[in-house]
From TrEMBL:
It catalyses: L-glutamate 5-semialdehyde + phosphate + NADP(+) = L-glutamyl 5-phosphate + NADPH + H(+). The keyword Oxidoreductase applies. GO terms for molecular function: glutamate-5-semialdehyde dehydrogenase activity; NADP binding. Belongs to the gamma-glutamyl phosphate reductase family. Its main location: cytoplasm. This is Gamma-glutamyl phosphate reductase. One of its GO terms (cellular component) is cytoplasm. Pathway: Amino-acid biosynthesis; L-proline biosynthesis; L-glutamate 5-semialdehyde from L-glutamate: step 2/2. It comes from the Archaea. The keyword NADP applies.
Length: 451
């Protein structure tokens, strides 16, 4: 890129960020009814523009299938990219479900009396300007924009180039449907140079949320001073314990892989207690193979069933497809060690009827979500009742697991007084603080004067 083009990209990105910052400050003051009405307008626009959305998506899919034939894309990527009429309706319904969620803003998180008529409130507020870089799923753009709007945040969206046509139409529908909202509240960027410039704007962008591989998230973290909330790969495990109900375990393990293998909460490694491997694996392997799953196993697994050999790399691979590795382990502690060595801190599941073993596993593995007798596929913002999600955070700071509306808020401290002076609480005649919790108190502007 020439120096003049670089300058143009920087200037354009700077202006986009300035507009987003101004929009965020105004959007933070938009009441819930305004935000919900805008969300319903987005849902209507998506339904009205279904044909246009599907035509754009068909262009993306055709290009992606050509890349698949050349070996540059995976089938999982193509599957995530595809939209049809049913999915378009699901996207519109998702936006409406976000509108129906409780307002995350203005909630009093804590209230404390410091002294008589001197009260401190901690109140939920938007983060501000949120930038997100995500993968091939076009519905991710709408999910993220809807959650940003409901939580009062401006958002800068960067989707994968493989979904560029779909993303443009969806973004246009969103912007057109929310013309009454602050200009610039939802921006779309496409070039890598724009992302690189955006990462430099820590004075205007408040949070970056990348969704992709560990390497990609690490790149973002290493190239910005902006706080990063990373959604990385999902190397998820299901552990079948000695005390599992084996019929139930087979159903859960099958669901976790086959129900939709292209997503980050699908299982990639099945761990099986050595005492049940002989009775459990043969029927399940046959069931997997009938469903087209390519299987690999460690040495002890291959003594029981005829599958391909697993390599060291398999334990650290997110297949995102009908592929699965199997390992026979000594006990729950061996399973925990394997998960902590190779997992991505996304979602893990133990199948057992022994409550003590379940507790040992659930407290012992390091993951954002840990399940007992349930498929890893439940790790999802919609299924958690969050309405939707901007991603699944595998870190531990600010938000963890599926990040919905609450994960897009922070808080402010509001202090209400009647002319109080710090001097009154200093020196020999200092007035003591009461520091009394105000259970159930809610902040409203002029909280003291309105009583």
């Amino acid at each position: 890129m020439s120096e003049s083009n670089t300058t143009d990209v920087e200037a354009d990105t700077d202006e986009l960020a300035r507009r987003a910052e101004r929009a965020a400050l105004r959007l933070a003051n938009a009441d819930e009814a305004t935000r919900d009405e805008a969300l319903r307008s987005i849902a209507d626009a998506i339904r009205e523009r279904e044909s246009e959305i599907l035509e754009a998506n068909a262009v993306d899919v055709e290009a992606a299938e050509a890349m698949l034939a050349d070996g540059e894309y995976t089938q999982a990527l193509v599957d995530r990219l595809k939209l049809d009429a049913t999915k378009v309706e699901e996207i519109a319904s998702m936006v409406e479900s976000v509108a129906e969620q409780d307002d995350p803003l203005g909630e009093t998180l804590a209230a404390r009396e410091l002294d008589e008529d001197l009260e401190l409130y901690r109140v939920a507020v938007p983060i501000g300007v949120v930038a997100t870089v995500f993968e091939s799923r076009p519905d991710a753009l709408v999910q993220i924009a809807a959650l940003a709007l409901k939580s009062g945040n401006a958002v800068v969206l960067k989707g994968g180039s493989e979904a560029s046509e779909s993303n443009r139409v969806l973004h246009e529908a969103i912007v057109d449907a929310t013309a009454d909202l602050p200009d610039g509240w939802a921006a779309l960027i496409e070039a890598h140079e724009e992302v690189d410039r955006l990462l430099e704007l820590d004075d205007r962008v408040d949070l970056v949320m990348p969704r992709g591989s560990s390497e990609f998230v690490s790149y973002i973290q290493e190239n910005t001073q902006i706080p990063v909330l990373g959604h990385t790969e999902g190397i998820c495990h299901v552990y079948v314990d000695a005390d599992a109900d084996l019929e139930m375990a087979a159903d859960v393990a099958f669901d976790a892989k086959v129900q939709y293998p292209a997503v980050c909460n699908a299982v990639e490694t099945l761990l099986v207690h050595e005492s049940v491997a002989d009775s459990f694996l043969p029927d399940l392997v046959e069931r997997y193979e009938d469903a087209g799953v390519e299987l690999r196993g460690d040495g002890r697994t291959r003594e029981v069933v005829d599958v391909g050999p697993a390599t060291a790399d398999d334990w650290d691979t997110e297949y995102g497809d009908l592929e699965l590795s199997i390992k026979v382990v000594d006990d729950a502690y061996d399973a925990i060690d394997h998960v902590n060595d190779h997992g991505s801190k996304h979602t893990e599941s133990i199948l057992t009827e022994d409550a003590e073993t379940a507790e040992t596993f659930m407290t012992g593995v390091d993951a954002a979500s840990v399940f007992h007798n349930a498929s890893t596929r439940f790790a999802d913002g919609y299924r958690y009742g969050l309405g939707a999600e901007v991603g699944i955070s595998t870190g531990k700071i600010h938000a963890r697991g599926p990040v919905g509306l609450e994960g897009l808020t922070t808080y402010k401290y509001y202090l209400e007084g009647t002319g109080h002076l710090v001097a009154s609480y200093s020196g020999e005649d200092a007035v003591p603080f009461t520091h009394r919790e105000l259970d159930g108190a809610e902040w409203t502007p002029g909280a003291l004067s309105t009583r």
